[in-house]
Amino acid sequence: MCNLEKVISDYMNTCRSCTIATVGPDGKPDASTVYFSSSGLDIYFNTASDSGKIKNIEANPHVAITMQKNPEPKTDKEISGIQYSGIAKILLESEYSRVPRGVMARHNAFNSVKHGNSVIVKVTAMKVYLIDYAKGFRHRELLQLS
Hints:
This protein has one domain (about 5-145): Pnp Oxidase, Chain A, CATH 2.30.110.10. It contains 3 helices and 8 strands, in the order αββββαββαββ. It has helices at about 5-15, 50-60, 100-110, and strands at about 15-25, 30-35, 35-40, 40-50, 60-65, 80-90, 120-130, 140-145. Strands 1, 2, 3, 4, 5, 6, 7 and 8 form an 8-stranded antiparallel sheet that branches.
């Protein structure tokens, strides 16, 4: 793992939620906030199996994600975050053994109401920017993965 990849992974581990942008079959964008867990640069979240996110991912697996640990910076120098683009995959139950425990706990709790009500999505990074205005106005470092 290169140094920038480790810095990004460590930053992601400090965030509990992110905003995921998808595009629907009609070509219109949609953004949703989700709780997530990560493993390296992979992001996992669970959501209702009939949600708009799932319909959109089925139509177009390309997604954009943003996250920040300080959602209300008081000065420009406090602005930091992640801009992430990747490919989303709705996992099969046979793939759940590789999912982080935090996601599985939420998934199982969600499905305790009605089995099969929730699915798990894995997002694989293609390009990630680390934003850090403490290093200068509009400072971004790019990690290109594909």
